[in-house]
Amino acid sequence: MVRTVRPIDERGILAAPVAVLMSTRVVQMLRDIPLREAQKVANRYDFNCFPIVVPEGRLVGMLTKGDLLRAARAAALDRSVWDQPVVTWMAHGVLALRPQDSVAAAVELMVESKLRSLPVIDNDDCVVGMVSRNDLIQALKPGDPQP
User: Fold this and answer.
1) I need a labelling partner for 87 at 20 to 30 A (CA). Which of 50, 63, 105, 139 fits?
2) How far apart are CA 82 and CA 39, in angstroms?
3) Average pLDDT, stretch 99-120?
4) Average pLDDT of 54-72?
5) What's the topology of domain 10-138?
6) Coil, helix or strand for 50?
7) Residue 119 to residue 139: CA distance in whole angstroms
8) What secondary structure letter does DSSP report for 60?
């Protein structure tokens, strides 16, 4: 799915809230689902990572394609790995943004952490969106010169 970003005044983009750039199409997974189910979800969607939540919706981790690759490597020796819950393979202590955080803060956090995507969470720590490197690059690229 191709998603376009609304043009924003280039001089003001760094001060704009990430809410104007974030994708609200987010595929989340419950922390207790088996890794084999998480792999099926990951195969269905072309995302870098997936927020992992508790049943109440609060963010508790992220599962990346790298995590799935590590699990697949381990499963080559022990097929029972696919029966383990996602929580055993996900990243804990997740970095996240709030909708009102600036684009500048998102860029800084993403560059410093070397992450490809960041979840955007509300005051209850529930995921309301995702911001990717591509979202930021598209927002920061120079516009076409005016004639």
Assistant:
1) 105
2) 9
3) 95
4) 95
5) CBS-domain (3.10.580)
6) strand
7) 17
8) E
Query: Using CA atoms in the order 78, 79, 84, 87, what is the torsion angle rounded to 10 degrees?
Result: 70
For 40, the enclosing helix (H) or strand (E) is: helix 35-44
Q: Per 3-state DSSP, what percentage of the chain is helix, strand, and coil (rounded to 5)?
A: 40, 20, 40
Domain locations in the chain as residue ranges: 10-138
Look at residue 11 in the predicted model and tell me its pLDDT: 54
Instruction: Name residue, tokens 């969470």.
Output: 121
| Run of H or E residues at 134 | helix 133-140
Global pTM? 0.85
Listing DSSP states for 90-127 in one string gives SBPS---B-TTSBHHHHHHHHHHHT-SEEEEE-TTSBE
**Distance between CA atoms of residues 41 and 111, nearest Å:** 27
d(CA 20, CA 26): 15
Question: Which residues have a Cβ under 8 Å from the Cβ of 104 and sit 6 or more positions away?
Answer: 14, 15
Is-contact 110 44, C-beta < 8 A? no
Q: What is the per-residue pLDDT across 27-55, written as a single tens digit (0 to 9) for each?
A: 999 999 999 999 999 999 988 899 999 99
